[in-house]
Amino acid sequence: MSEVSKEIKVIVFRLQNEEYGVPIDYIGSIERMLEITRIPNTPKFIKGVINLRGIVTPVIDLRERFGMETSEYSSRSRMIIVQIDDKEVGMIVDEANDVVDLREDAIETPPEVIGSVDTDYVRGVAKLDDRLLILLNLDRVLSNEEVSQLSAVEK
Amino acid sequence: METNQYLGIFIDESNENLQKVNDGLLDLEKDPTNMEHIEVIFRAAHTLKGMSATMGYEDLTTLTHQMEDVLDLVRNGELAVSAQLLDILLNAVEKLEEMVGDISAGGDGESTIQPILSQLKAIGEIEESADEAVTSTEDGVNGQLTLDSFEETVISQANSEGLHTYQLTIQLTDDCLLKAARVYMVFGILEKEGEVIKSVPSVETLESEEFDHQFDVVFVTSVNEKELKDKIMKVSEIKQVNIQPIKSVNDHEETDNKEMDRTPREQASKEAPNNSDKKRKQSANKTIRVNIDRLDALMNLFEELVIDRGRLEQIASEMEHSDLTETVGRMSRISGDLQSIILTMRMVPIEQVFNRFPRMVRQLARELQKDIQLDIEGAETELDRTVIDEIGDPLVHLIRNSLDHGIEMPEVREKNGKNRQGHVLLKAYHSGNHVYVEISDDGQGINREKVLNKALENQVVTPEQANQLSDRQIDELILASGFSTADEVSDLSGRGVGLDVVKNTIESLGGTIEIASEEGKGTTFTIQLPLTLSIISVMLSTVGSETYAVPLSTIIETAIINQDEIVTIQGQKMMHFKESVIPLIFLREVLDVPDSNNAPDKESVIIVRKGEQVAGLVVDSLIGQQEVVLKNLGNYLTSIFAISGATILGDGEVALIIDTHSLIK
C-alpha cells in the first residue's frame, strides 16, 4: 500500500448555514421531496414514510433530529437516502448539491463545540479551502435506541 | 477447496437425507425385522457421509461413518434392533441435525461428538470386536489398498450388479501448483461417472494438500477402464493414471457370510423394481430447484404490478370508457390468476414442520412414561413459506401441551376403560382461503372447574364474569394471558410461557385458534391460518386527510351510527352491537390525527374482533375493500404502536395498516 492517504468521496449538504458531509458509500440516492405519510406516535423528527420506488422508506428531518430550528421545506430541500447496516432511511436536508474528494488525513477529531450539533453525532471535521465540513457519524444519528426511547417518552 | 457454491445444495440434501434416516429409524422401530428400512437408512447415511467428506466437514463425516458401521452390523444380522440401539441412533441423528444447522447458520459444523461416538462404538462392539481392527485402514500405502468391511460389501454388491471396481492411482506432475484444485476436479469427474468408495490419503487430507503428488482412489463405475482414463487425463497437470480392477479381496472368506446376508438383500432387490417404478412415476412430475431469492424477487415485481393494477382500475372507473374498462377487467382477471400461481410457487408442504414431531413425541412420551401414538394426516397440505417459518413453535407448544396435560398415564387410561395407548392426531387441510391445522388428543379433556378456579386465582376473570362464561369460553381461558403461571413449570409444556404465546403468534400471522374439549374424551385445538401473508384484503378508510387500512380478517362488519347512539359508561364511549355493548376506539384520538372532523353527526364504525372481544373503530369515512400488498416499515422503525405495516395504494401514496389486536386491550 502506498503512503499517500486514501481519498474519500463525500456528499455535501446544508443545514441552516452549516455544511455537513456523508461518505458517498452510504448514499443510496438523493431525492426531491416526495409525499410523506405521517406515522402516529413516533418522535417528532420522524416525519413518516415515503414510497421510494415501491419500497416503504422512513424519513427523518435532520434539523429536528439535531434540535435545530425548523423551517418550511423549499424547492431546494432534498431527501438523502442513506443505507447503514440493514437500515434505509431518508434524511431531509436544506440543500444537497456537491460532491467533494477528501483526504482521510484532512479529517480531524471534532472540537468540543462544533456548530449546532451535539459532538456525539460528529465523526470529524474537515477543512476544505475556506469551508468547514462536519462529517456525521451516521451510526449514532440513525440509532434505533433513540427512536424507541423517545417514543416511550412521548407516549 | 472452494466449496461454497455447493454449500446450499449440501445443506438441502443433508437435511433431506437426515430426514430419511430419521423416518427410516422410526419405521424400523415399528417393524424391526424389515430389512428394507435398514437399506433406506443405510443409503441415506452413506450419501450423507460422502457429501460431508467432500465438503470437508470432519466431525460430520466421522459421526456418520460410525453410524454406518453400526447400521452395517444390523444389516448383516450381527446386531439386533433394540430400543437402546434406536435411542442411540436417533440421538446421533439429532446431533447431526444440530451440526448441519450450525453449518447453515454459517458455522463450521464442528461439535463435541465424542460421547455419542463412543456410544455408537460401544453398541457396535458388543457383538463385534474383531471387525474393528479392519476398519482402521492404513493410510498412504501403495499397491492394493486395505478395505474395511463396509467397503467390501459395497464392492461385492457393485460386482454383483455388473459394475466395475477399480483402484486408481493418480499422479500429479511434480510442478503442480494447485494440488487441491486438481484433486477436486478429478473427484468431480469421478463423481459424475460413479461412486468413490475410498481414497488414500483421505479426502480431507487431500483437500488440505497434505500429500505428495500421488493418491489412490477406490471407485465403482459402469464406465470401462480406457474411457475413465481418458476422462481423468483431461484434467491438466496430471502425470499419470494407473487403473487396476479390484476383485473383492475377501471373496473366499466371505462367501459363507455373503450367502447369508444376501437373503435380505435379494428380498430388497426383488422389491426394488417396485420401488423404482414408484420413483419413475414421481419423477414424471418434474421439478426444479429455484433459489428462494428469485421467488421473492418475482413476488416483489408482482406486488408492483398489483399496485398499478389498483391504479388502472381506479382510472378506468373514472373514465367510464367501455373498451378501457373491459381491457382492465380482463387484465385484472389474468393478474389474479398470475397471483395465485406465484403464490402457489412459494408454497411448501407443511410436512417440513410436521417431520420433526414423530421423534419429539417419541422422546417426550418416554420422559413422561406414557404410551403415545402420533398420527399425521395431510402432511402434503401446502402453505406459504412465510407462514411455515412461523408456525413451528406454536405447534411444538400445543403438542407438548397435549402430551403433558392431555394424555393420561397408561394406568389411569386403563382404569377409565380406555386403551393404554394414547393417540394424538395432527391434521392439516385446506378449506376456502385458509389452511387448518388440528391437534387432537384422546386424553382427559379440559377440567373446567379447575381452569375456572385457576383463572379466578390468577385474576384473569372476575367472579361476576366467571358465572356468565359458557363452556367454550372457559376452555379458551387456558389461552388467556396471565393464565399460566411460572409456579407450574413442568419441564415439558410449562417452561414458564403459557399457551397465550401460541395464541399471540397465531393471531399475529392473521390466524385464529379454537378449542373444543369434552371431559374424559379429549381436546382438539383448531388453528386457522391464511394461505399467504404478503397480499391481504383490507378495508380502506380515512381519518382526517390520512388513509388507513384495516385487515378484513379482523372485521366483523361496518356500521354508521348517530351521535346519540353513543353511550358513555364509566368514561368510556360505547355503542350497542347485537346483544351487547362494545367499546369505541376513536382512531382520530389514538392516532393523534391533526385535521380530523371532530364529532360529526354520524360516525363511521368498523367493528373488529380479537378472539372473543369486540370493539368499534371510529373513522371519518369508509372508502372500500381492496387487495393490497403488505410491506414492512423497515428496520429503522420497529414496534410502532397500533401500526403493523404499510401498503402502497394505486396513486402511489403510502397507507398504514392498523394493528387491531394492539388496540383492543
Characterize the main sheet of chain A.
Answer: 6 strands, mixed
- What is the spatial order of strands in the main beta sheet of chain A? 8-1-2-11-10-9
Order of helices and strands of chain A: EEEEEHEEEEEEHH
- Extract low-pLDDT stretches of chain A: 150-155
Rg of chain B to the nearest angstrom? 32 Å
Which class of chain A in CATH terms? Mainly Beta
Please state roughly what percent of the residues of chain B sit in beta strands, choosing from under 5%, 5-15%, 15-25%, 25-35%, 35-45% or over 45%: 15-25%
* CATH top level assignment of the largest domain in chain B: Alpha Beta
Shape of chain A: globular
Major sheet size, sense and barrel closure of chain B: 6 strands, mixed
Mean pLDDT over the full residue set of chain B: 78
Q: What is the count of helical runs of chain B?
A: 23
Overall pLDDT of chain A? 82
Give the N-terminus to C-terminus distance of chain A in angstroms: 53 Å
What does this structure look like?
Chain A: It is found in: Cytoplasm. Chain A: Residues 7-147 form the CheW-like domain. Chain A: This is Chemotaxis protein CheW. The complex is a heterodimer of chains A (155) and B (665). With 155 residues, chain A is mainly beta. Chain A has a single domain, classed as Beta Barrel (OB fold (Dihydrolipoamide Acetyltransferase, E2P)), CATH 2.40.50. Helices cover 12% and strands 47% of the residues of chain A. Chain A has a six-stranded mixed β-sheet, with no helix packed on it. In chain A, strands 3-6-7-5-4 form a five-stranded mixed β-sheet. The longest helix of chain A is centred in the last third of the chain and has 11 residues, at 144-154. The termini of chain A are far apart. The relative contact order of chain A is 0.24. Chain B is an alpha+beta fold and 665 residues long. Chain B has five domains: 1-134, Up-down Bundle (Four Helix Bundle (Hemerythrin (Met), subunit A)), CATH 1.20.120.160; 137-277, Histidine kinase CheA-like, P2 response regulator-binding domain (Alpha-Beta Plaits), CATH 3.30.70.1110; 292-346; 349-530, Heat Shock Protein 90, CATH 3.30.565; 535-663, OB fold (Dihydrolipoamide Acetyltransferase, E2P). In chain B, the strands form five sheets. A six-stranded mixed β-sheet of chain B has the order 14-18-19-17-16-15. In chain B, strands 6-8-9-11-10 form a five-stranded mixed β-sheet. In chain B, strands 20-12-13-22-21 form a five-stranded mixed β-sheet. In chain B, α2 runs antiparallel to α3 (58-75) and α3 (58-75) runs parallel beside α5. Chain B is globular and about 100 Å long. Chain B starts with 6 loop residues before the first helix and ends with a helix. Classes of the chains: A mainly beta (155), B alpha+beta (665). At the A-B interface, β4, β5, β7 and α3 of A face α12, β21 and β22 of B.
